[in-house]
Write a structure and sequence with these properties.
By secondary structure, the protein is an alpha/beta fold. It has 8 helices and 5 strands. The chain has helices spanning about 20-30, 35-45, 50-55, 55-70, 90-100, 110-120, 135-150, 165-175, and strands at about 5-10, 30-35, 80, 100-110, 155-160. The termini are close together.
């Protein structure tokens, strides 16, 4: 590809590495980094988990759409790490795929990798905070991945992150931009 993109969207399931890779990549290629959930928390003045608790997921998805559109419109070189569900709601996938001079990257991890990465952060993640054990988590992730893969697979590029180090993933992405 070897083209300079203004916006790089990182999409994929929670635990796939979007935020970790996005932060490191932004330093390497000198792009501004935005974690969409963090941006929402700043703009709304409350944690995503509190938005889910005090409002509901429908409300969250509505403001997520608004802030994704806002971020994608910023005239700067940027990396946007989306939430795991972002591409699956409203016209978010259209925003991601049709933003001018952008690249969407699906960071793909299998169920076992995601369980391993997420099991110690269940309490901090609103969508899985109700789950009791690894088996519940595995079932939940399997179902969600099945539902969401359709959206994720529409990205421009897919990188499998199961057995690859963060730095190697960054090198792969850097070769694309």
């Amino acid at each position: 590809m070897n083209k300079t993109f203004n916006t790089i969207f990182l999409i994929g399931y929670m635990g796939a590495g979007k935020s970790v890779i996005g932060k490191s990549l932004s330093k390497k290629i000198n792009y501004k980094f935005y974690d969409l959930d963090d941006y929402i928390e700043i703009k709304e003045g409350k944690k995503v988990s509190d938005i889910f608790d005090q409002e509901n997921e429908v409300y969250f998805r509505k403001i997520e759409n608004k802030y994704l559109d806002q971020l994608s419109s910023k005239k700067e070189k940027k990396i946007i790490s989306t939430g795991g569900g972002t591409p699956c709601f409203d016209n978010n996938l259209d925003i991601i795929l049709n933003s001018t001079n952008s690249l969407s990257i699906y960071l793909k991890a299998n169920v076992n990798t995601l369980v391993k990465r997420l099991k110690n952060s269940i309490a901090k993640r609103p969508l899985i905070s109700h789950l009791k054990d690894d088996e519940d988590l595995r079932d939940f992730i399997s179902k969600h991945l099945f539902e969401r893969s359709f959206f994720y697979e529409k990205s421009d590029v897919k990188i499998i992150t199961d057995d690859i180090e963060v730095n190697d993933t960054i090198k792969l992405i850097n070769e694309l931009v």
